[in-house]
Design a protein that fits this description.
Strand order of the largest sheet of chain C: 6-7-8-3-9-10-12-11
Shape of chain C: globular
CATH class of chain C: Alpha Beta
Largest sheet of chain C: 8 strands, mixed
Number of helices of chain B: 11
CATH topology of chain C: Rossmann fold
Structural class of chain B: mainly alpha
Chains: A mainly alpha (340), B mainly alpha (288), C alpha/beta (323)
Order of helices and strands of chain B: HHHHHHHHHHH
Distance between the termini of chain B: 23 Å
CATH superfamily of chain C: P-loop containing nucleotide triphosphate hydrolases
Largest sheet of chain B: none
Oligomer: heterotrimer
Number of helices of chain C: 11
CATH architecture of chain C: 3-Layer(aba) Sandwich
Number of domains of chain C: 1
Helix content of chain C: 25-40%
Chain lengths: 340, 288, 323
């Protein structure tokens, strides 16, 4: 079955890439100018203690052995111990990741919800005032530094107009009154699953500004690819056939054209997810949103290498998985791949 | 006009089209202003010494005629610092793009033209780099190397080169099938010569488009790194850094964080307008 | 049934104004198979697209003329009215079946969709009608093909599917734009036979666009020859082939290899019409064919020839022929 081969090939490719990712992150850790052993034990350690630490950390072994140990640890889910919190990095990540995951997902939904219709309108009204307005609007959206946009939103909507909360993930008062039972760690999902409406609303209120700031950068990419793939599709013969059969223009665009145009759009959407993950690093610190981004920034400022590396690895993994999912979706949308 | 030849005429047509499109016109104006400001910053800035000087007496003064963007917590004129900061941003952008081109062009062209295992290997390597969200990878590298302007440039370059490799590869792939390449091959021209003399000139237009859009993104990434403290260190007037410090003075002394961000936005906007217009112009013609 | 009067369709391109169809008159009667012949760029496809009003603006626009379909001028109809006519009263099939079907929907869905639209049918009715049609166009296993996607079919089968779609609502007029050009000769032949059969069953007329005179001879009742956006000769197929009048028509016929049986007795050296297709932005003055015509006179460079009835039902637009 061609589909089976397609899936298998994609998964194998992903695994190879992940291997390379681990090599890259490993290399970065070894490129650090300062001595990790010294950092680990602190500034007031004796030479002997540093030597001991070096031995314990395996830093006296040859480089490739170190890498193999590193890889082995990774496969066991051991990302090292945070120098700052002294907890295993995996644990820290497990605490912080769900928040970011739901944030980036919301941002993705927003980006698609805004970008897709804009792209379609832009394509069907090509070269008109609307088209140009959409272009300017989306170019503008991607020109703003995401953290600065977040700041402005905060300034406007929180400090000045007091519509939305400034920081955090949920209103502590609301959580006290109607405590959330966590299942996945994602507040919106959990609150829906447990029927906890107040927390759901509060969580959404806290997420909407950072998610919106994040999505602005992606909207333009989605709009642009939708527009160009729609334009490409509308040029095709089968669109002419559909029209010659007397189908309503609505049907031609939203049924016949769109399904074809979505294929490249979906791929680009997957790519923008990486942008969102990166952006979350910056946005979360503005909103004091306790996600993996905030954790990463904190670790960076403290030069906590295991933590930084752990986060980087994790996000690379998530990104790869998202792209794999996109590839699968692609196969689902395009029958030429499914029934090749 | 006759002496210019076909390609020369194409460029003139492009320039003409750029001139007519209002968006690209705005873009060109902004870009040129940016470059001029960056190059002549010490001359243009009203208080050039405020890169480093401290005037605590005037700290955190609001927007006024003497200080159009207000002053920061050290009493430094933010307007001047924003102008001086443009140099840093431009420098980073130029270096990163130059390095990415330097690595990306040969690798991409080689991969696209020669195919086979060379192509496979290079593609896998780029995939590995591209599996990281760019900002993160840059952050990790910059964190490992230590916060400094130079390290920022190294870090961002390392995350940027794969894009150009990919771009060049795609271009090389589509061009290598064209007849004039067949002709050159049949005449026994060496591979290296084919790549440099025949394929590369045709990739020029798409490279230009990519560069003009990328400069904006590099500036944003650099600002992001500056924001988390991994870029140029205080008291350097780096835009991202200024926003980061300025953030602690929100919302009361709002001008501190707002204006550097505005500068970033306008600069990036200019490059994006220009790049978008270029892309539009190049696109239909690439098809013919 | 269809009467085109003075049709002018121009394309406004950045290179200039292309007068693709510059005053064309023709009539198609009930149940007639009408061939529209010409080289590439003669404007024949544009006439077809203009009839069904699928000329896209930009850059193309119908500038003048009347297209009388069953008495009504199609050019005066609203978009909504045209939409109802397309697919149900006037249908069209195109040259490239491989790209003319939507790759992400099944064959069955695409045909059923048209049936549901024009005949207000429910899903099940549409499905059974679709299966019927697929059977009628000679597809061996309609049930299986119904659920297949375009890329799983051969060119010939796809063209049959297209014919099924076009004829599903029993149109009065079928416009076929080079339906066999991209197919194998034998398959093409079958397709033409199929079209002939089916349209005679439902009593429809056909506007058959082609550059192949052999097809015209085999299939059509009447024919019009187009050159550079204008009709240069038209009439009954037999008469035209036996007695071609316009130099261009004569040139076309004599460039066929002698075996076609059309010009028996002639030697089989391939003759060629000298010169090349004119530039439609600035076509030649007077008669557009005159630069390539052996019989060109002084007046051919100045006066535009009009269609004259040389013999009953046979029209020619040539200044030299009117003797």
């Amino acid at each position: 079955m061609k589909l089976g081969y397609y899936v298998a090939r994609r998964i194998i490719a992903m695994l190879i890439v992940l291997l390379g990712v681990s090599i890259i992150t490993f290399s970065i850790t070894r490129v650090v100018p300062s001595d990790p052993a010294r950092l680990w034990v602190g500034s007031r350690a004796t030479e002997q203690q540093i030597e001991q630490a070096r031995h314990e950390l395996g830093l006296d072994r040859p480089l490739y052995i170190q890498y193999l140990i590193y890889l082995g640890d990774l496969l066991h889910g051991d990302l090292g111990v945070s120098m700052h919190s002294r907890r295993p990095v995996v644990e820290d990540i497990r605490n912080y990741f769900p928040a970011t995951f739901e944030l980036t997902n919301l941002a993705m939904i927003l980006a698609v919800a805004i970008g897709l219709p804009l792209g379609i309108i832009s394509a069907t009204k090509k070269d008109t005032g609307t088209d140009h307005a959409v272009r300017i609007f989306s170019l503008w959206g991607v020109s703003m530094p995401v953290f600065w946009l977040g700041l402005l939103l905060q300034l406007l909507l929180s400090s000045t107009l007091h519509i939305l909360p400034t920081t955090g993930r949920v209103d502590p008062v609301v959580n006290l009154q109607s405590p959330l039972r966590t299942i996945t760690g994602m507040y919106t999902v959990d609150s829906l699953l447990t029927g906890n409406l107040p927390v759901f609303i509060s969580a959404l209120q806290h997420m909407i500004m950072p998610a919106f700031a994040l999505s602005c950068g992606c909207v333009v990419m989605i709009t642009r690819i939708t527009r160009s793939s729609m334009l490409e599709v509308l040029r095709q013969d089968y669109i002419r056939t559909a029209r010659s059969n007397g189908l309503a223009e609505r049907t031609v665009i939203y049924k016949h054209a769109l399904k074809n145009a979505l294929i490249p759009t979906v791929t680009v959407a997957g790519l923008t997810y990486g942008f969102l993950l990166g952006g979350s690093v910056l946005v979360e610190s503005i909103f004091d949103y306790p996600g993996i981004g905030l954790y990463a920034v904190g670790s960076t400022l403290l030069i906590d290498y295991p933590a930084i590396m752990g986060v980087t690895l994790l996000l690379a993994l998530v990104y790869s998985l998202v792209n794999l999912a996109v590839d699968m979706l692609y196969a689902f949308l395009d029958p030429r791949i499914r029934y090749g | 006009m006759g002496r210019l030849g076909r390609r020369g005429k194409e460029y003139l047509v492009t320039l003409n089209l750029l001139r007519k499109n209002p968006l690209s016109l705005a873009g060109i104006i902004i870009v040129l202003s940016f470059i001029v400001v960056a190059l002549f910053a010490p001359v243009i800035a009203p208080y050039p010494s405020d890169a480093t000087d401290v005037h605590l007496a005037r700290s955190l003064s609001p927007v006024s005629w003497e200080h159009p963007f207000g002053t920061d917590d050290m009493g430094r004129d933010i307007f001047s610092r924003v102008i001086l900061g443009s140099r840093i941003s431009l420098e980073i952008a130029v270096v990163v793009i130059a390095v990415s081109l330097g690595v990306g062009i040969p690798m991409g062209a080689a991969a696209g033209y020669m195919g086979g295992w060379i192509d496979e290997t290079i593609m896998r390597i780029t995939d590995m780099f591209l599996a990281f969200p760019s900002i993160l990878l840059a952050m990790a590298i910059a964190a490992a190397l230590g916060p400094s302007l130079t390290n920022t440039m190294i870090a961002i370059s390392l995350t940027w080169w794969p894009w150009y490799t990919r771009l060049l590869r795609g271009q090389a792939l589509s061009i290598r099938e064209r007849t004039f390449v067949e002709a050159a091959k049949s005449m026994g021209v060496s591979k290296k010569r084919i790549i440099f003399q025949h394929i590369l000139p045709h990739t020029f237009s798409s490279i230009i488009v990519q560069i003009s859009m990328d400069i904006g993104y590099v500036i944003l990434t650099a600002a992001g790194l500056g924001f988390v403290g991994l870029g140029a260190q205080p008291p350097a007037p780096e835009w991202g850094l200024m926003i980061s410090i300025g953030r602690t003075f929100m919302p009361q002394w709002w001008w501190y964080a707002t204006f550097p961000g505005l500068a970033i936005m306008i600069a990036v906007l200019g490059f994006n307008f220009l790049g978008d217009a270029l892309r539009d112009i190049m696109d239909p013609r690439l098809r013919t | 049934m269809l009467k085109i009067e003075g049709l002018k369709t121009y394309f406004y391109t950045y290179k200039g104004l292309i007068k693709a169809v510059d005053s064309v008159d023709l009539e198609i009667g009930r149940g007639e198979i009408f061939g529209l012949v010409g080289e590439s760029g003669s404007g024949k496809s544009t006439v077809a697209l203009s009839t069904i009003r699928l000329v896209t603006w930009p850059p193309g626009k119908i500038v003048d003329g009347r297209i009388l379909f069953q008495g009504d001028d199609l050019l005066l109809k609203t978009d909504e009215e045209m939409r109802r006519i397309r697919g149900s009263e006037i249908s069209m099939i195109f040259q490239e079946p491989t790209t003319s079907l939507n790759p992400v929907f099944t064959i069955g869905d695409q045909i059923a969709e048209v049936i549901m639209l024009h005949q207000n049918a429910g899903k099940d009715t549409a499905k059974s009608k679709t299966l019927e049609m697929l059977n009628e166009v000679g597809i061996a296993d309609p049930k299986r093909v119904f659920g297949e996607y375009p890329h799983e079919l051969s060119g010939g089968m796809m063209q049959r599917a297209m014919i099924a779609t076009a004829l599903s609502c029993k149109p009065r007029l079928l416009i076929a734009d080079e339906p066999t050009t991209s197919l194998d000769v034998t398959i093409g032949f079958q397709i033409l036979q199929l079209i002939k059969e089916l349209v005679s069953t439902i009593g429809a007329s056909v506007m058959l666009i082609t550059h192949d005179l052999g097809i015209v001879a085999e299939t059509c009742d009447k024919v019009a020859v187009m050159y550079a956006g204008q009709v240069v000769e038209k009439g009954d197929v037999k008469r035209l082939f036996e007695n071609p009048m316009h130099p261009y028509t004569k040139g076309l016929l004599s460039s066929l290899p002698g075996k076609s049986g059309l010009l028996e007795g002639k030697k089989s050296i391939l003759s060629v019409i000298k010169g090349s297709v004119p530039d439609l932005i600035s076509p030649p003055q007077g008669c557009r064919f005159h630069p390539r015509c052996e019989l060109a006179k002084e007046s051919c460079t100045k006066d535009k020839p009009r269609l004259h009835e040389i013999e009953p039902g046979h029209f020619v637009a040539c200044l030299t022929c009117n003797n």
